[in-house]
Structure formats: structure tokens, C-alpha cells
Amino acid sequence: MLLQVPRGTKDILPEETPVWQEVESKARRIFSLYNYAEIRTPVFENVTLFKRALGDVTDIVQKQMFVFKQGDDHFVLRPEATASIARAYLENNLGFGVKLRKLFYIGPMFRAERPQKGRLRQFHHIGVEAIGLTNPNLDIEVIELADKLLREFGISNYKFVINSLGCVKDKAKFADLLKQALAKHKKVLCKDCQKRITKNVFRVLDCKNEKCKEITHSLKIGQSYLCGDCKSHFDKVLKGLDKFGIKYEVKEQLVRGLDYYSGVVFEVVHPDLGAQDALGAGGRYDYLFKELANKEIGAVGFAFGEERLMLALPKKESSKKLNVYVMSLGDKAADKSLELVKNLRSAGVSCDFDYSDGSLKSKLNEANKLGARFAIIIGDDEINKGKLVVKFMQEGKQEEVEFVNAVGFIKNILKE
Ligand code: AMP
User: Fold this and answer.
1) CB neighbours of 71 closer than 8 A, spacing ≥ 6?
2) Which CATH number is 328's domain given?
3) Same domain, 73 and 115
4) pLDDT tens, residue by residue, 319-369
5) How many domains in the chain?
6) Maximum Cα–Cα distance across the chain
7) For the domain that residue 271 is a member of, what is the CATH number?
8) Which atom of ligand 1 is nearest to the CA of 268?
9) Are residues 54 and 152 in the same domain?
10) What single DSSP character describes residue 5?
């Protein structure tokens, strides 16, 4: 039987990688405009990190961690990077001497979920973390940066959905209000949600069961649980988004799946993605550092799912094409051709050689399939004349060029 990739994982094939590279290089360019520096943390961490950071009763920790044991140690393939980056920030003292550390990351994440469209077991995040301050202007910058990235990728029709969970006290008040409101409907909720009311009431708001959704959508809790400071922080963020012309919808059911979130939380949704409609998500997590190291450090960030970005991108032809495909006929010509291939590459012209023993026709066919702009043909005849043939693949014409002038000839046309 043919071996296959594990369910919920995907090969990103050579036809697809140019788009991934383009998205990532655009993201890197924009991150550097906003003064974010890249951080690369290991893809596995000690299991305690995620239990402490995400919360014991979150879905990720309870059901979705790929855990493995090595000797006496238990590790987990990272389900997300925020906890790892917080760990790295503390461990490497990245806050030393600076008020704010702006970090970005790009890489694979792993969650043992039931695979379905838009939901993989290995997927990729592009994300940022701004660590050190609680200023609402920073929330605005982070959301504006997310918006800038999407626009730069050419994605449209997305929408920001935003809410505030408030500080720890507010969040507890919010949880109580939810519990009271949901208790009245307990019998109608699904079995899982009946348990969630006591264990982790916020999870009820993410339930996909139609009845549960109907009930949660009918709840009218508003932002009544927010204290004065958190309310004014939230208002400032919304005003800032208005000023930047960023469209959003305030949604009181938005809570995010992880315990560490507090204050402003947001998601970016796109109508073309179907049931899994979140392109990305983020928010404040001012209490994560308290949880990990008993330190008061404000932080805000977001992560986009790269696979979902790919689904929302406008379709276009890849612009990365091979410039030249060189082919020879006869042994003498092969030596000369390989010398030319080397010279073209040294001059920065992408170039490949046909190593097969096939006919000229089959070699030209290959050049066509590769989408090469030019085919260069060198045979014994050409060697004797000190010339070669440049075939313009699209235009269907060809020219004889002196061997010594070949690199300059190609470079000149590519410049046009
Ligand atoms: P989260 O860390 O769950 O807030 O996820 C942030 C973003 O990552 C989501 O909005 C999705 O775009 C993407 N994402 C999360 N989980 C998956 C998954 N299992 N498969 C593919 N993309 C995912």
C-alpha cells in the first residue's frame, strides 16, 4: 500500500510554495516596518508550560495536545506560540532595558483535532507579540498591523470582530453572569455544555451545536461586567480603530479559547472560509506572565492561520518562472552547455540543463512544461561555428547568438 501523510497534515507542494513564500516575505517586510523582530522557539516544549499558560480545562490542553515522553520528561508539540514566546521572553530576560519587545514568528503548530476543512493537525501561524505595556494605543497598533497585512496580501471582505473580557475581576464577573443566564436554559444545552457551565463557562459560547448557539446568541449581557478602567481602555481602542477606518463589529459572545486572554480580544473572519471562518485571532494577555512567573507585564498579539490565508487569497499565476533551459546534442556540446549554465547562474539568471538522452523535440517539450522563457540549443554544428541558438518559447522565434555574447544577450532581454 502506498504510504500517505498522517491525517490532518499536508504536503505543501512545489506549485504551492511560491505563494507561501510571497505571503511570508510580505509579512516579514511589514513586520520590520513596524519594528517587530523575528523569534524562533523550539517546536516542542515541556508539557507544563501549556498546562500553566493555557489553562487545564481548555480544549487544547484537554484534548488537542500531541504529547510524547522521552525518558522521564513529557513534551508537547507546540499547539500555539504565545506561551513559548512568553517563556522565552522570561528565560532570556528579553524585557531587560527596553519598555516594549515587539516579536514576530512564522512556523508550524500542532493540534490533535478531528481533521476537517480548514482544521488541520499541523498548520502554520504568522503572528506577533508586543510584550511590556498595557497602553490601549498598542492594541490599536496590533489590530492595525493585522489589517495592514491582510490588505497587503490582497485579501478583502474580511471583518474584525471584537470584545473586551476585562481584567481578572471583570472576567470572573462575566463568568458569573454567564452562568446565571445559562442556568435558565441548562436543559436545552448539549451534554458537553451542561458540564461546561460549571467547568469553563466561556466554552459554551464556542459550541457549534445549533441549540446552544441559539441560546448564547439570545443572551443580553453586554459589557456590563467591565470596570471603569477596562471600559475606558476598550472605548479608546474602538475610537482608534474608527480613526484608522478599520471596520469592526463588537460581539459580546467573543471570548477566545484560552485562559490567558484578558482585556481586548478579537478575531478576523472571512465569509469564503465556511464553518471555520476565522483567518486569525488575538488579544491582550496581561495575566499570562503572572501565571508563569508572578510578574506584571502587559502584552498583546495575534496569529493568522497561514492555510486559511491561502484559501482567502485572490488566485493568480505564479510569477516565478525559469528564465533559461539549456539543451545540448552530442558530448562536446554538453561540456560547453554546462559551462554556459554556470555562467548564466553566476550572472543571476535562473537556468537549468536537460540531463536526459532524449531527442531535441522531447527536450523542447520539457522546456515548455517548465515554463522556461528561453531554450538554448547547443549542438556540434553550433560549437564549430562558435554560436548557439536562443529559442524564444512564447514568441516561437529563434536567434543565433555568439557563444561569448550569450549571457549578455539574455540579460539584456530580461531587463526589458
Ligand atoms: P488560535 O490560536 O486557535 O486562536 O488560532 C489562530 C488562527 O490559527 C485561527 O484563526 C485559524 O486561522 C488558525 N488555526 C487554528 N487552529 C487551526 C487548525 N487546527 N487548522 C488550521 N488553522 C488553524
Assistant:
1) none
2) 3.40.50.800
3) yes
4) 668 999 999 998 889 999 999 999 999 999 999 999 999 999 999 999 999
5) 2
6) 93
7) 3.30.930.10
8) 10
9) yes
10) P
Residue 253 falls within a domain, yes or no? yes
DSSP string covering 375-414? EEEEEHHHHHHTEEEEEETTT--EEEEEGGGHHHHHHHHH
| 386 shares its domain with 359 | yes
Please check whether residues 41 and 112 belong to one and the same domain: yes
Question: Which of 6-10, 58-62, 213-217, 274-278 bottoms out in mean pLDDT, i.e. has the lowest?
Answer: 58-62
| Spatial CB neighbours of 134, under 8 Å, sequence gap ≥ 6 | 233, 284, 286, 298
Identify the CA nearest to 145 among candidates 130, 162, 164.
Answer: 130
Nearest CA to ligand 1 atom 14: 305
Q: What is the pLDDT of residues 198-231, one digit of tens each?
A: 888 988 988 878 899 889 988 888 889 999 999 9
Residues 85 and 145 in one domain: yes
Minimum mean pLDDT among 158-162, 240-244, 412-416: which range? 412-416
The domain containing residue 26 runs over which residues?
A: 17-167+227-312
Residue 58 lies in a domain: yes
Q: Do 299 and 331 belong together in one domain?
A: no
The last residue of one of the domains, among 312, 338, 362, is 312
Residue type at 87? R
User: Which cell numbers hold the place of 405?
Assistant: 555574447
pLDDT at residue 259 tops 90: no
Taking CA atoms only, the protein residue closest to ligand 1 atom 21 is 119
Rounded CA separation 79/122 (Å): 9
The answer to the question of residue 102 being in a domain is: yes
The number of beta carbons lying within 10 Å of the beta carbon of residue 383 is 19
Residues 44 and 77 sit within 8 Å (Cβ to Cβ): yes
User: Which atom of ligand 1 is the closest one to the Cα of 306?
Assistant: 12
- Atom 12 of ligand 1, residue of closest alpha carbon: 305
Ligand 1 residue neighbourhood (C-beta within 6 Å)? 80, 111, 113, 118-120, 123, 125, 257, 278-281, 303, 305, 307-308
* Domain membership flag for residue 3: no
Least confident of 131-140, 144-153, 265-274: 265-274
